[in-house]
């Protein structure tokens, strides 16, 4: 764990200790109100909430005794509230004594626990590595193959090269280790029996390297039993594929994992009103590369969710004005957030709280204080699972590109980014294969499907990983190119048209033929809606077709045929 991580936690711990007097003074004030008016349920709830804050945060910053005492006070208040009676003066005095014990605990634990956060944290190996953002055009994807089967290596190289990837072959374990010592590939394909049964060790070696959690790792081998497949996964493999390989499934899964690695930093929305706990969560997650927003006022939850579009929500239960359960139910009633993981991070450890977590639509229930390793592992696992399921639901089965719904959702996100950072440029492109019905009629739908897949592959190969690319109709594709003006996008699409138009496709009886496409390009204009942006691209596409097809036309000059 780096020194900046140590320093951040020490600073947070110091802030927590400095704020102890204010926290305890707030409990004393609430107890004064309760002593004057024991039947005041609002004052009792405030005392309980203040104790709850101590129980959930104390041990996080190296004050375990503070957490224990806070929990005692919280449970004592719960017992009184559940009985339906007002607290007695003796009970209130006992709570005051508890506050004094907390003060003493702060004094006693301040010096010995100075490095407690560092001791609680797990080593760096437990911290998931965040994936780099892809940049630039035509980044070559490297697949390292460590496999004894020469026929499979040939088939794999041929298949992946058609997908625009590069295959590097390791002849033995020593060669594979040497390659890994020089660079980490985007994916590793290995047989468990490679080089005398050392394939699993090679996967483990990759996973143990700095940055080794990111690449995809596939085991490809002979038909195996359940135990062998589980052993492969335990070594760190993402999937086990039996020979003969289902190449369509193999490629689809590989693409999903590669796109995960190229994605922007996952976004976590933390709903937490305690500033010390919020600071801890933010420091831990940002150290692992996550983008974090703190929602300290539950009334702003909807606005923050809309503006931030989180990949995961961390939710406290006890919040001012609302409960975390209320906010989770609110989130779940909107289908847009149906698949967003909600992880409750709370000091509530009772069985009833866990039951309510499930009923409210929560995916996990972490109890404060939580170690950095547990928090990071839970967040990483939940986000990865959600993104995998989302990719399955949002992909076109034939081309692997975004489907219509997922593309439009992405387009709305691009529009929001343009509104926040105007002037960078963005272009909407609609592509339509020319005379595609004739291809299907003459050569059959299976051949037509291969043509569609070929165009999808070309778009994936030649565009950036951050560009939105979708199949939005039968033979219609759509692309959003952020950071490119309309003119720049036109030039790019003309290069793609030139490349696609010379590709040879095999028809019925082996006859070769070629296909072209038409495209319309519309640059983003301030104030545009998604519908207006798409319509501008559609109008340009119509102009391209009217001018004879096999061309790219921009919305700014649809009357000009290239």
What tags apply to this protein structure?
Four Helix Bundle (Hemerythrin (Met), subunit A); 22 helices; Rossmann fold; 5-stranded parallel beta sheet; globular; 562 residues; 17 strands; alpha/beta
Notes on the structure:
The protein has 562 residues and is of the alpha/beta class. It has 4 domains: 3-118, Four Helix Bundle (Hemerythrin (Met), subunit A) (Up-down Bundle), CATH 1.20.120.160; 141-262, Response regulator (Rossmann fold, 3-Layer(aba) Sandwich); 267-393, Rossmann fold (3-Layer(aba) Sandwich), CATH 3.40.50; 404-554, Alpha-Beta Plaits. The protein is 53% helix and 14% strand. It contains 22 helices and 17 strands. It has helices at residues 3-18, 20-36, 41-57, 64-83, 89-110, 116-120, 150-162, 173-182, 194-197, 199-208, 226-234, 247-262, 275-287, 301-308, 324-332, 351-359, 372-393, 404-420, 436-443, 445-462, 486-501, 530-546, and strands at residues 141-146, 165-169, 187-190, 216-221, 239-242, 267-271, 291-295, 312-315, 342-346, 364-367, 426-433, 468-471, 476-482, 505-506, 512-513, 517-523, 552-554. The chain has a 5-stranded parallel β-sheet with strand order 2-1-3-4-5, with helices on both faces. α7 (150-162) links the parallel β1 and β2 (165-169). α2 runs antiparallel to α5 (89-110). The longest helix is centred in the N-terminal third of the chain and has 22 residues, at 89-110. It starts with a helix and ends in an 8-residue tail after the last strand. Residues 113-138 have low confidence and may be disordered.
